[in-house]
Amino acid sequence: MPPSRKRWILAPYDCQLQFEISQKVKISPLLAQICINRGITSPEDVENFFHVNPSQLHSSFSFNKMEQAVTCMEEAIANQEKILIYGDYDVDGVTGTSLLYLYLKSRQARVSYYIPDRKEEGYGLNEEAVYWASREKFSLIVTVDCGISSVRETELANSLGLKIIITDHHQPPEILPAALAIINPKVKASKYPFPHLAGVGVAWKLAQGLEMHREKKENHEDAILKEFLDLVCLGTIADVVPLTGENRVIVALGLKKMMEGQRPGIQALLSVTGLDNKPVTAGQVGFILAPRLNAAGRLSSARLAVELLTSSLASESLERALVLDKENTLRQAVEGEIFQQALHMIDETVDLEEDYVIVLAAPEWHAGVIGIAASRLVEKYHRPVVLIAIEGELAKGSARSIECFDIFLALRSCQEWLVQFGGHRLAAGIKLKEENIAAFRKAINTFARTVLSKDHLIPVVKIDLELDLNTNEQYYINDIERLAPFGAGNPLPVLAFRNLKIVEAKGVGVGAPHLKVKFESGGHFLDGIGFNLSHHLSWITIGSKVDVAVTLERNLWNGCEKIQFVLKDIQPHPVLISLSPAPDFDQEKGMVIPGIRADKEENEDHPAFSALINRRTPRVSMALPLKEGRFLWYHAAAYNCRVGKSKTIILFSCPSQLGSEYALAALHLGKLGISVGWADSRMAQEEKDQVWDAFTKGWIRVLFTTPEYLEAQDHDGSERADALIVVAIVDPFDSLLSGGEFMERCHEILRPGLTKGLVITTVSEKKNHLSLLEKTFNCPDTYSDIKQARTSLVDGRGMRNREEYLLDLLQKEESCLVYLSLPSHVEELMSGMSRLGIRPESMTGCYGDQMPWQHQMVMKKIQKKVLRTVVTTRHLYGETDGLFDHVIFYHSPRNMFDFFRFAGCGNGEKGAQIHLLYNTHDVAAINDVLQADFPDRDLLGKIYKGIKALSPYGRQVSGTKEEILQRLKIDQDPCRKERAFDAWLSTMSELGLLKVSRQGNRFCLEFINNGNKCRLEDSFRYREGLREKKAFDFWHHIALSPQLDQEIFDLLG
């Protein structure tokens, strides 16, 4: 089974607002961004979000008809009239009924309650119940969580002399019932400031209004009725209303009230479910307590749930809770059977290509549980589902929907086929005649096709932030827990982690439906559990790299607490890039290159771009500064993908150039909904194949790679025939005759049959370089616009006291960017500077796999002078040009490309200084790393002989990587030995000399005798390595040259 094709949507981050909130409210940038994702965008609102209190609740008398409702009920109480509370049978209705019943009982009112039978009577007021109330001499009916659609029943009650007050929160119909008062925050012209109360919340507001009137309170905070907060909390969570605004206050305070243990019925439920004497979360209320209360109304009578919640006796409550627990077990079995039957019916009768709404009906289904089964089907098929239980001539249905499809509006469009309907955007109930089911199915699908496209039916995972796997998970979860309680409108944050290595993976649970995984990144390990995700074991292999979307949870086992991932999705890395909602490209072209121009007319007038998109010429070359060149290839790729409807391949000379350029492109192109991928020879073979498969299927629209990878995968050139090929020349070495192999390779790829080609050099506008471009690529149009920055070089290479020199620079309180070669050196250097007197809060480190939003927050702090110094091992994401007063190469960069990228961060207009503090040892260390990543012929031969010596017959070697490396005798330190071994595996596999298979974490290496001598140059891993090392040699010569500044000037011209 292939990986799931879920679409990841990364929430757009606002660096400026993130900075403002984190500074003013004193919270982390992570927490500030998640608040922004929730629509909480002012520091004041963030403060209120974290510090809930009763003062944030609204007055009951903000409801339009509260005064009339209170007056009527007070008269009924005073006159000892019989009052009937008519509640719905779900948890919302049951808790609201219990609350109002208990309150009125405390007022010595003559009050009773009525809960309709779900199967016999269905949802809402019914005429038979109204007649019954009249016969029983009730004078007032107060509905709870129902009644807003009961126009006919209300007319009947009025004709019988019954007064009706409707408290409800469902969507009102166009014609409202003629009730004495309607208390509903969603009615037109409602003045109530919060529209998302649950039914129990509305009932609570009515009780508060009565309490204010009775006690003659002017301040609503004095009549909150806190003793009922546990009931309001329970019903609010169960009804899945947004836990924002007033509902957040209700649930936060209600969970605390629940823990006080003052209501025997709730205490009995906690005891039965094993949650007593423990902190209770909103999730536990929603998924453990609420289903048991719902079970009574689904299979028998919801009166049992009201009796439990209104009981004052612990023993009686425990008996009822045990009955509800058994009912819930039975409900699960019935629901499971319906779900399996529905799956079979979908396989047999539903055309998922045509039916955007699944509508199924069966006579044997229980109407009380079809809603739960419908929700599970929505989760599986990601489309609206309506399940219908046929009961004679009349049928009852439950509808559940996806976020982008308003099921209530859909039902309204089909109401000619319905007897009754009601509900919300995402859930609704219907009644219809059996003979109309087919017509209803056709009508709702006709409506759906006017609203939905096939893209809407692709499951979506909403990502709050991308983070790196390190030792900060404890800080992450501490921050995240401050956002509780979680629920609709405030979901548990979903985080993306990329490029994680699978260490262990297996199925667990009865029947092994769940996926248990151990991940590793940078020597840090973390466990993960994916419920009902074990089907991913069909493609996951030990050692493979993946991207995951997860929530974090604390896992307590044998008294030991660990942070673990709860997987929402898992994908091969780097097949998928997170996307943001894509604007209409024809209207928003300017978004692609904000660093150059702001509107589409000017973008199209850019000479190189104009020549390309108007196809005046098949090839265009351009000399631009790196920043503008980068944005031009983004723009060209975006236009080609969104308007030209074809893919784009961006070629770089060396693997070391790919990583950061790919990440920057994903940052910008992702905003337009364009997926970006990258590949080079350092990947495992399955990863290389996964990327190419994703590119050929269109899952990746823009591919960053090298000529070697492209030629190895696209043997016949068919995939590149219709693509735009962008050649990115970003290192001076690539544009010189000595490094001309890259340009020659690209020239072969840009053969005459291709439609479009764009060659961009960001390193020089010297005439001989530009003429070489024109000659090599046969580009009739060449444009040049490179301007050199005014920066000065300070040569401190080889100095003995570079720590003191750096200390003097950092003490100037000017902005500094310090480059180091390895992540392990970052903390070491910052700790050393701190011990010497530099304030730790004035420095930060950027290294490893930190995310764009984290880098942009750092840059914002530099601009605001909150930070002074950034110590980094990699180029920063975003607008870094001209940001720093000093750029310090404490270690040597890897090549000229890296040198220019970091040097470009200096503020040329203010005369930024570039400080060279590296020494010969630093340069030699880079060479050692390159030799491990791309072994030369001699080292490859030694590894070949060493591995073959491990097999008694010279044919096959097996074991874990650690076991094989322990036995392998070559002169390398352990880290470089492992890297060289990985490179050898890749090279030998590409040459057809080795078959590599894995089972779990064990390798089986089988030597292949193909009878022919192979050339190392036939391995694209080896060829990429040769070019990478030549680029380093080119830089090595300049890096240690006594005339370094003159040589750089000669290169740039």
From TrEMBL:
Residues 356-448 form the DHHA1 domain. The keyword Nuclease applies. GO terms for molecular function: 5'-3' exonuclease activity; nucleic acid binding. Pfam families: DHH, DHHA1, RecJ_OB. Residues 463-569 form the RecJ OB domain. Residues 82-236 form the DDH domain. Keywords: Exonuclease, Hydrolase, Nuclease. Belongs to the RecJ family. PANTHER family: SINGLE-STRANDED-DNA-SPECIFIC EXONUCLEASE RECJ. This is Single-stranded-DNA-specific exonuclease RecJ.
